[in-house]
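Sequence in, structure out. Go.
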Amino acid sequence: MSADGRSCVALNVATENDPDRVGLIADSKPDCACESEPFSQYSPGLVQSSETIVRMVCVPMHVHLKRVELKTSFFSHIATNGASVQRLEIASDAELLKCVEDLTGGADDRVWLGVVEANTSEIRGLQQRDGKQSFCVADAALEGNPAHAEIHNAWRIPEADQIEYRVALRDLFVRGGIRSRSSFRDGSVWNSVRDDIRARPLPPAWTGFA
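Output:
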């Protein structure tokens, strides 16, 4: 239970639309305690250290248009609402497709470019200056997407330090490169994307990549 007596599941529901969600979770469940108990009523099981975590790369939200590179804003929500990610080993193609179409369906200039990934143990291994864990990976499963997870800051980060921590997390995810949409799962997700989204033009720098 948290400091105020709530379970992680109850805390997840109560903070769902709160702009201070991550801070409230860190206050009530310090030291990533919600990694060790269910965080969602739809949980398929706790996120294990051996799992691969993936995050979709889309334009124009989080990428540079003139070079194949992710902006520091790629993980801008880790200190506020939490960053949505997918648990690759348990995610179906249909769930990943829905994730892509949800991200790109809001505006005509949104295009899916590919994915980046990192091992859960590596994410949890990133440390604060005092040696404590920087980020939590919680099983924030949704009713129609059991593979959904969230990355949160493990503590309240001062605003002046937030970019430093976002950069560290971004650099971990891009260490193995950005996987193009056509190579991700041998193209099975990309080949199922709606025709109108598939037809959207890419920024020139990304044309040969995707």
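Check: The first strand starts at residue 52 and ends at 59. The mean pLDDT is 92.
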